[in-house]
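During the second year of the project, the team shifted from modelling isolated chains to modelling whole assemblies. The rationale, set out in the original proposal, was that interfaces cannot be judged from single-chain predictions alone. As a representative example for this report, we include one of the complexes processed in the last quarter. Its constituent sequences, exactly as entered into the pipeline, are reproduced here:
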Amino acid sequence: MKRSVREAKKQEKRTLILTTTARLFKEKGYHATTIADIIRETGLARGTFYLYFREKQEIFNEMLKALYTSLTAGVWQFEIEKFQDRESFYNQLVALGYRLLKIFREHREVVQILVSNPAGADSAFDRQVHGFYTLLVEVARGMIERGIETGRIVPHDSKLLSLILTGGLREFVFQWLTTGLYEDELEDKIEQIVFFFMRGVEVR
Amino acid sequence: MKRSVREAKKQEKRTLILTTTARLFKEKGYHATTIADIIRETGLARGTFYLYFREKQEIFNEMLKALYTSLTAGVWQFEIEKFQDRESFYNQLVALGYRLLKIFREHREVVQILVSNPAGADSAFDRQVHGFYTLLVEVARGMIERGIETGRIVPHDSKLLSLILTGGLREFVFQWLTTGLYEDELEDKIEQIVFFFMRGVEVR
Amino acid sequence: MKRSVREAKKQEKRTLILTTTARLFKEKGYHATTIADIIRETGLARGTFYLYFREKQEIFNEMLKALYTSLTAGVWQFEIEKFQDRESFYNQLVALGYRLLKIFREHREVVQILVSNPAGADSAFDRQVHGFYTLLVEVARGMIERGIETGRIVPHDSKLLSLILTGGLREFVFQWLTTGLYEDELEDKIEQIVFFFMRGVEVR
Amino acid sequence: MKRSVREAKKQEKRTLILTTTARLFKEKGYHATTIADIIRETGLARGTFYLYFREKQEIFNEMLKALYTSLTAGVWQFEIEKFQDRESFYNQLVALGYRLLKIFREHREVVQILVSNPAGADSAFDRQVHGFYTLLVEVARGMIERGIETGRIVPHDSKLLSLILTGGLREFVFQWLTTGLYEDELEDKIEQIVFFFMRGVEVR
DNA sequence: CATGAATGAGGATTCATTCAT
DNA sequence: AATGAATGAATCCTCATTCAT
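Output from the structure prediction step:
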């Protein structure tokens, strides 16, 4: 049907905007990317952009939504599924780390934006980024509390621990995505981080 | 003397700009703060601002310099002084944490800007912020390596550990400074962080 | 077609800017003319100007290019064509003068700017104006040297002569274009200038 | 007397401003030179400048006045004195050229400003420059008319001739002062110009 | 649906000039 | 007389967004 051809074309253009903008965000940063950049790089007309997105922010929201979807499918549900079985807690955490890694790899651009833009001020963008971290912290916190309840983690201020953990991971991911550090040994590093998280650094 | 009266007034105005801008940075974020905001809030004339600072960036530099000075006096030299004596490593780290805390309290505004703002893109500001973290990571790394050499820390990828540590602390400080969390129990939380850093979370 | 209607309107606006700016340059001089003046006089919005030209300079370049094109077609090639035939040298020079005059008449505005504005300092504008004169001097010099080679002009420092000639003509054109002097007897005056150039003033 | 010491100091400061500004005008051009430049280079206070001159323009006027004084003493009166005696007309013109040259050498800076800033627009500055040329043209015209009356110059449109002559000289002086061309052979070139003015270029 | 010309608010910076000390 | 801090008008330029075609 003509209808669906049109629909397809429309979706195509939408995707074009999304991928192009993702690249621009990566290259110049979110704030430095202007609508002018986007229409220049996509080759679309100025007004066309506004047919698909009302503002730059909306593109970012879209990307973020995709990330959330992946996270929901791959991580959020993780704790429910996996915490039941016999695997050691350590291995479970490593497996979780691998899952996160996989998702971050698939959503490099958004993740890079998220880790490069700590959210302080109060633009819509900042609130989104902040929301992401809050969520992450809450998830981590939930896991830690579960660990405490099930006797695998010594009692701690779970909020504090989750903040430290989330912040630490963020710096790690930031370093990886912006400088390429650890690119070829990420799985190994994940294990080291989990090891550190479990045992600390002290010589015993 | 007449001379000093003028000088004093000038210094007063300089301070006015600095404190007002610090507040604005805090309220709206560094990037969202415009020169127009600054002159409106200080009540100064358009041109007066440029009499004291050539650009917004310069105000931030000023603040940062003061922080660096404090850090140099209070922390950098710390490792040299303290790592010699008999105190337990744990206590040493806690003491270091307290020192950092004290300095961060005295420089709340700058620190808040540092933990709240993008360090990804490449404006002069971003480079400054990034430089600060790089420095912090390097200092942490040096300490960790010393710990490994002296047999107090089990061999680890020191770069990785320092990234995680710095990132974790940053999130902690960010939370404290923007939401007021832990305001009245910071010393306690520092101890918990050091404890976590040393022993991890695993039940043994 | 719709397409061409839009195109036409755009061209119209472009022309509006060009003519309005030409008038302003004439009235207030190049340097005294601001972008604000241009948008006020054209009735356009602030940003519209930048849709057509990136800077004031670009308008001038546009005008200058048109002049260069005419000069290339009408004068530069002149010496090649005409110096071959039998016409007396005197008549040839007069003919060249007429040609120049015709071109200057068609490009009054640019020419007026060129003869009325500083060529000393080193802005982009000044370099353009200076480049124009340098070119003129070089062309004049080439012609004089050809005249010397072919035995029609007594040996002289050709550079010096071309400087004097170019400067003299410029003052003449300046007077004509700013005060209207000689407006109705330009051809006659051209002949007098050529006569003076050939024979000097001395009574013999 | 105290009075005269003060007076002397005042005069000194005035001179300081004049020479410093002359240098700046030469280096950066008249328009590009700001009051800020002047007070920086003189080391005077902002307000002090305004005790001596109300505006930049006034400094230029001062310089111009000095040039006028020299011209009045050395050239204007020239025609009156010299045109009486037996010297050949040619030699008289050369002598006049030498005199002009001497004066221009002594007032390099002002002269450079005058020849670098053809006056088109209508600022006070432009009017001054324009006035200078008008005067020069009038003087030249007077001389030419006298030459015609006394039978040494063939009848010509004296206004036209004086425009051409003045413009030519200006270009010559401009070249000399801005590029240094002819610096070491100026007297020689003056003679060549007079020769050209008298006899033209034609081979006879 | 698509286009792209037009808009004007918003932000940075410079500079001549004044005026209290 | 000298000072130099303060002023604010003037200028340039960018950019998100609208709207007629």
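The domain at 1-53 of chain A is CATH 1.10.10.60 (Arc Repressor Mutant, subunit A). Chains A and D do not touch (no CB pair under 8 Å).
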